[in-house]
Amino acid sequence: MQLADPCIFGGDINAHNTAWGSIKTTTRGKKLKTFANITGLDIIAPPTPTRYGKHSDSFIDLAVTKNFLYPYNITSVPELGSDRNPVILNFLNYNTPKPDKVFKTNWTKFSNELNNLSNYPIIDINTNNDLDTQINHLTDEINNAFHNNSKEVNPNIANSNSELRNIFALCNKTKRDWQATRNPVHRRKL
């Protein structure tokens, strides 16, 4: 089973296991727990049962996640008046910080500009103040080389692979062509 990172899926898995609150462990529950342990999956169950039966209450509606690090809560809601409770998995409000600025750098030009600094005269450093001055000067030169050979770009585009952007653009063009013509040739390209 191949899962993307991060991944979450859930449903009526009908796998009882004491690890997630059931009073007994069934064969299906044992297999699910073993599979989760081997593949690095986490099993999330609400704190209260999801099914109420004649003989026992059980936790059979579960969520299974992989590398899901976002805050959440999961609850079993007794609102339908049946033996089964709907489960609500609520992803808490969480925003990732946006980068201040994203740059695209021409690394060849940047390297060439830094190579030209190798002609920069190195003075004798006799004091801590001399060392600090030289470090500050070199840092300024590196920052200048970066800014001279970089331009600010849209952060959404900066992290995407150019080959993938080309594939998506071609796919979108093919979709537009098919929608405009309804030609089966365009449909097969999708």
From TrEMBL:
SUPFAM superfamilies per the UniProt record, alphabetical: DNase I-like
Endonuclease/exonuclease/phosphatase domain mapped to chain residues: 6-87
Protein name, per record = Endonuclease/exonuclease/phosphatase domain-containing protein
What Gene3D superfamilies does this protein's entry cite?
Answer: Endonuclease/exonuclease/phosphatase
Entries under InterPro entries matching the protein = Endo/exonu/phosph_ase_sf (IPR036691), Endo/exonuclease/phosphatase (IPR005135)
Segments crossing the lipid bilayer? none
Q: Which organism is it from?
A: Araneus ventricosus (Orbweaver spider)
Instruction: Output the superkingdom of the source species.
Output: Eukaryota
Q: What is a GO molecular function of this protein?
A: catalytic activity
